[in-house]
Amino acid sequence: MNISRTNIDELNAVIKLSIEKSDYEATVNETLKDYRKKANMPGFRKGMVPAGLIKKMYGKAVLAEEINKILSKELNRYISEENLQILGEPLPNETEQKTIDFDHDENFEFVFDLGFSPAIVIDFKKLGKLPLYEIAIDEEMINNQVEAFQNRFGNYVDAEVSTEKDNLIGSLKQLDEKGAVLEGGIQVEEAQVSIQLVKTKKLKSALLGKKAGDIIKFNPAKAFDDKHYLKQLLKIEDAQAESLTSDFELTVSKVNTFVPAELNEEMFKKSLGGETNITTPEQFKEKIAEDLKENLRYSTEYRFLVDTKEALTKYVGMKLPVEFLKRWLVYSNEKITREQVDEEFDLFVKDLEWTLIRSRLAKDNDLKVSEADLVALAKETALMQFRQYGMFSVPDEYLDNYAKSILKNEEERHHLVEKRSESMVLEFIKNNADLEVKTVTQKAFDDLFEK
């Protein structure tokens, strides 16, 4: 057994690994003996098949398997012992690798290309300031959220006459070309026509001030842009909605007007998922401000990630073994062509650069994801999913069980490990880099993503 390495440059190397007959012969012979003991072939008693026949039938496969085992073991051992920081995996050399002949060769030589991860050194004192944005919670944002909750839990009640935000309820009948009710045409009882959704000003104006008993003629297809709403209103299918051109007659039976929910304890509980200690509008607004700040934290954290990636990758100025990486991407994924790799390589490099920087910071500063970290993150993920369905007060037992089921899924577990690792690295950067905290409005913050 012999392994040698030739460094092409600081990012590329060639490894040659020679395997001699003495490295594999004993193991191969023992394996073939086991095959012979277990062989059950017509014309021979069990275990008495000639050794030559066993070797002829299985020798090549056994040899190839043993060579591959030795090759994998020795390559990994060498890379580990030499502390080589490789990218991807070793690739067969395209020029020096000779054809392997398991039928006739006794000694074998394998030649591999290696691509190295570049050295990464970060001096936060020289990095410069990193922007850290905070979004100001103003009165308008709070009032908008209060209004959203009031609309969410409000109700429609009967009204005398219609206004712009009301619904007209009544019998809706399709008319023929002469304006008479079409026999066998579309008819909907208790149809709900939303004045707010009407797109033409003329018709919207005509629907205002209506009361029970009034009759209005209009063309629904021209009145509403939303085909989905049109289908619901007229109880029709897609094809009918696309081809509909008729006028309809609406005989109003009643007017529904929307009344936002009152700011009271019942509404506070509904809005805050069972919160019981909020009793006044002032307390409600304070709680909304807290929740807005927490929700916006995810946005500002993401922005910090974007800015940090850009600053650190620019600072490091990373050099990569480009040709090796392109070969490896094609080699490791049969569905990807070289043309696709060339086209999307810049995006791949950006992700790779950040991954390498993040991994280096985590390793150098012993930032390890613990099982407790994963459980906590899984429970947080579970709680967010429950809240999407309006479940704000979830028993710990349910959260624990749901978190366990998440962590049993290897793909989900890996995702959480990556997420937690990244957050730990970002927190480390915050504590060590020079930060420039900027308080901005929501609009100014949103505009950052348009640049």
Task: Give your account of this protein's structure.
With 451 residues, the chain is α+β, with helices and mostly antiparallel strands. It has 3 domains: 2-115, Alpha-Beta Plaits (2-Layer Sandwich); 132-140 and 271-450, Orthogonal Bundle (Trigger factor, domain 2); 155-259, Chitinase A, domain 3 (Roll), CATH 3.10.50.40. The chain has 16 helices and 11 strands. It has helices at residues 21-38, 51-81, 124-127, 139-152, 201-207, 220-223, 227-234, 238-243, 265-271, 281-316, 322-332, 338-364, 371-388, 396-408, 410-432, 442-447; strands at residues 2-7, 12-19, 91-92, 108-115, 130-135, 155-159, 167-174, 187-194, 215-218, 248-259, 435-440. The strands form 3 sheets. Strands 6, 7, 8, 9 and 10 form a 5-stranded antiparallel sheet that branches. Helix 1 packs across helix 2 (51-81), helix 4 (139-152) packs across helix 10 (281-316) and helix 11 (322-332) packs across helix 12 (338-364). The longest helix is centred in the middle third of the chain and has 36 residues, at 281-316. The two termini are 58 Å apart. The model has no long low-confidence stretch (mean pLDDT 91).
